[in-house]
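Dear all,

This email documents one entry for the complex benchmark we are building for the journal club exercise. For each entry we list the sequence lines for every component of the assembly. Then comes the predicted three-dimensional structure of the complex as a token string, followed by one or two observations. Please use this as the template for your own entries, and keep the labels exactly as they appear.
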Amino acid sequence: MIKVLLFGTLAQKAGRRVVELEYEAGATVAAVVDIVKREYLGDEAGIYMTAVNEVQAKPEEIINDNDEIAIMPPFSGG
Amino acid sequence: MDFTDEQIERYSRHIILPEVGGKGQAKLLNSKVFVLGAGGLGSPSLFYLAAAGVGTIGIADDDAVDLSNLQRQIIHDTNDIGTHKVLSAKATIEALNPDVQVNAHQGRLTEDNIREIIRDYDILLDGSDNFPTRFLMNDAAFFEKKTLVSGSMFRFDGQVSIFKPHEGKPCYRCLYPEPPPKGMVPSCGEAGVLGALAGVIGVLQAVETVKEILGIGESLAGKLLIYDALGSGFRKVRVMKDPECALCSDQATIKELSTYEQAACDFNGPTVG
């Protein structure tokens, strides 16, 4: 299992802050984001940054089982 | 520097901390901090920076106090409605601590004036409320080699980080290369925010600013601190300098400030003059 955390506009849009997905060997960060986008975000995520286990990660990074992936949009409010 | 008896008493709870001491307090009194936005984040930041005795504080905002601001913008009060925010904030700070010199910048911050305005300050604090201003501030801070203490929020979530590309740490564009497309950004009127969240994030910015001035503790540069008010949780994500950053990498394509698209709700965008 992998755990995906959503923040800000993305959490609002998905109507949830946490998504759990089955782990697939060799999956990348981008593949996980694509699934979340398709299933929960109507294919629209705008600008965001991703992290794996609290370290910023590039889309091509390979994930491992039990990883925690965060998808973080920027906030503009002040 | 020589403290007056009043200063020794006013700052006694700082001075007895070994990490601050008389030396640290003198650093604070000699420091110059620029705060962009006297709104939700700027209000608590300004309060604590002023109370701490930051000797010079610049404030930029082009808006006037509105009744709907008072749920979170605590540096203003009901009697200030209609008053320019920088003047209202200046009056509150001067009543709190006469040691602080406040520079009130009214009027819009633009690519033409921002570098000259921020040049006189040691540290910059971003409490602006729209993406174009955040990118303008980030880029100007990079060109002027100034440390930028950034805070932002949305509903129940907040982010805090320090951008120091001039010391090999990431800038805002290393995290977010460009502003989100317009359709993804809720207009200011639609975007609600928990009032006390502004307190948490703005005060964290003040704490990090004071740490930077004193040179104590672990810097938030290279880290993004995320606060989730509903989940009562903090997370600290390690962030990297982007080797292809358009602003701060060797492959930079942004060589000067350009026109920054104005936000849909730029009526309350911070400004200067």
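Observations: Chain B touches chain A at residues 37, 39-42, 126-131, 134, 151-155, 157-159, 175-181, 183-186, 191, 193, 224, 226, 228, 230-231, 235-240, 263 (CB under 8 Å). Chain B is about 30% helix and 15% strand.
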